[in-house]
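Sequence in, structure out. Go.
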Amino acid sequence: MDFNSVIGHEEIKRRLISEADNGKVAHAIMLCGPEGNGAMAIALAYARYLLCKSDEKHDGNVCGKCSSCAMTDKLQHPDLHFAFPIYKLYSAPKPTYCDDFLKEWRGMLLQSPHFGYEEWAAECDAQNHQLMIYADESDNLNRKLGLKSSQGGYKVVIVWLPEKMHEACANKLLKLLEEPPHKTVFILVSEEPDKVIQTIRSRTQMVSVPRLPIEAIEQILTEQNGILPAEAKRIARHTAGNMVAAQRTIRDNSEAELFFELFVSLMRLSYMRKVKEMKQWSDKVASLGRERQKNFLAYCQRMIRENFIYNFHSPELNYMNESEADFAVKFAPFINERNVIGIMEELAVAQRHIEQNVNPKMVFFDFSLKMIVLIKNR
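Output:
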């Protein structure tokens, strides 16, 4: 991954390249912005640019020939280190490090730098484990960075989702940032920088990475994924600059169909007040697994918004597929200014409860019962 392969963000790329070329490299930067903004691609490109040993690199182009480039291409450079959320493989006192998951991590990055927490959790087979960067990881990094650079140049540490750091880990990392080893660069990639402790934020150069242009995502989908232009345009507009969400949309067509069926079923059962069947519906959704449950609630929120907007008869504002649009013809009148806020609030509450590990059967059955009242409020 080099800067020429990074989609968009021209200003950020020029800035980082200029700082590297002029020897004004910040010891720590935080690339922050929403999921799917391409920040990890920027981090990898910047790391490759810093680690390239050739004097021939210029305008963001690395030589691609030196031993450093060859190792970085495989993400096996001895001076390139990663920290990312993991789960404990072993019982105490034996610690679990990110190194234990490097095979899966490298495999995912080499496939695509555009992924989210959900994809990584599936790749590392987290199942119901909550992923975290543990305190032991800072000790591990400290040991690695205490060694002399293998290639005599920079040492680069990429920390993905620093907001997932354990408090003890964050405090230990802070000490490294306050007194960084010689020619060591920390690149933090954060989706929720407000959740990173303030003392770490204050010691990093914050770089805001906005969402990708819709046109850029549309182009990638047609050229790299073979998606038809009309469908690529719909996906790009629907995912609103989130490349991860765009790839999920392509990959999860079957899941989208399932979510649509579950949404339609809930609305019909709520309207008909079939409580027994609603209980069965809740049990079915509860069996999906926590990440898919959160995805389903996000899908429900989108469908409520789309059906509310449908009532304004402005097709250019709606981003629904054919099945969803057909359902909206009769369903949209049930979503109006008297109940749309209440429904969205209940969906947000349900999503928060799922994230807090509340029993999903209780969460979804409670939500379905509330929909009986809300859906009738026309």
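Check: Residues 3-210 form a domain with the Rossmann fold fold (CATH 3.40.50.300). The two ends are 53 Å apart (CA to CA).
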